[in-house]
Design brief:
Amino_oxidase, two-stranded antiparallel sheet, elongated, 1 helix, FAD/NAD-bd_sf, binds flavin-adenine dinucleotide, Amine oxidase domain-containing protein, alpha+beta, 27% helix, oxidoreductase activity
Length: 73
């Protein structure tokens, strides 16, 4: 008999926020000497629709907007 587990390879593709941490906290960039150095995107960083592909997409757009706004300064 063929076991489906031998043929299906899946992993969870979403994160869960730990107690006391809001999803939006995960989107706070690392700033050094007044400049953004590291940014975070991905479904887990969206405050409302985490665990979704749309949340992941919107988080990428949020961070690209952040880059553009930072360049304008
Ligand atoms: C079975 C299943 C069904 C789903 N169905 C739906 C659905 O119907 N609708 C919906 O909206 N959402 C669905 N989701 C959730 C959706 O897939 C995720 O929310 C979305 O893919 C998250 O996108 P992401 O870019 O944040 O993360 P991911 O898609 O997980 O991308 C993260 C990437 O980073 C890479 N990576 C990880 N660590 C490292 C590292 N150290 N160095 C370099 N690369 C690294 C990974 O390989 C991966 O490619 C489903 C999820 C699963 C598991």
């Amino acid at each position: 008999m063929i076991s489906m587990e031998d043929h299906i390879r899946t992993r969870n593709s979403y994160e869960q926020a730990q107690a006391g941490i809001r999803h939006s906290d995960l989107s706070i960039p690392i700033i050094h000497n007044g400049k953004i150095r590291i940014q975070f995107a991905g479904e887990a960083t969206h405050d409302r629709i985490f665990q979704t592909a749309v949340g992941a997409f919107l988080s990428g757009r949020r961070e690209s907007d952040r880059i553009l706004n930072d360049l304008k300064k």
